[in-house]
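Shipment paperwork, digital attachment
Item: protein structure file
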Amino acid sequence: MAQHILNQRPVSRRPISRLCRNGFFLLPLVLLVLLGVVLPWLGSPLLYNTSSSPSFPPSLSYWREYSLTQATKFVAKNGSTVIVCTVSYPFLPFLNNWLISVSRQNHQENVLVIAEDYATLYKVNEKWPGHAVLIPPALGSQTAQHFGSKGFFKFTSRRPQHLLDILELGYNVMYNDVDMVWLQDPFQYLEGSHDAYFMDDLTKIKPLNHSHDLPPPNRKGATYICSCMIFLRPTSGAKLLMNKWIEELGSLFWAKPKEGNDQPAFNWALNKTAHEVDVYLLPQTAFPSGGLYFTNETWVKETKGKHAIIHNNYIIGYDEKMKRFRDFGLWLVDDYALESPLGKL
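Attachment content:
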């Protein structure tokens, strides 16, 4: 009898043991779920509404106080790069078109929209909280500013200060105009560890193995680099270049005859700091000017598959730019708006 009892298995221990084993395996799963759901929100601006009347979603007053420091920290996430564009309200369709192309390369979460007016600030953050910031003073939002106008100059002349501020916060920064479309990931072309990367704005075809140095100046002593696509590292050289660009923007030497364009100032800054800043000219096949891509069909066919970013420049006018994008199959908003973080506007 005693032997029979000794040989019996303790039935009460089995469910306890099984529960412990299951609990041991379930605990890591629960932790993973919590980490996946909770942690991404810890860096969200939605958790730090400091307005007098906290609300969800954040109030308009919250976004008015939302700072560049907060915004860059949010979009950079675990990385060190911020992708920046500056936009006024009339150009939201172009922003959306650009964002679709950026999203296709999986870089949309690093995008920071610097809104030039409160209408843009509110609209972008309503659709995509935390990805837009306004750095006062705000500009008017009703009229689309065309290349060469005084309004366009006011809009673009703030660019180097925005970029310098981001560099001072310790981030790499890529700037894009929103009349661009990404066809490939541009980051694969940022070879080495130079201070500044940029693209040539000329239409003349370069050799496939062209130099990546700053091109020699023309007869007037200037180069023709586009200020539309710039990548900068937070180095003393990049900061020097931005400070020089700001200085040149304030110089009447160039501003009087060309008041509506900030690009000459950028080129003067590049030339005057040439021996102090480590620069890199991006390959023309990947970063062609609009004057080359949209007018030279033969070149486009010969370099097919090598294009990274297309800039819709060398054309003036909101409707004209949109039509050309449509003609070349690069106006993505009509059919693919849902691929944008902003969705349909």
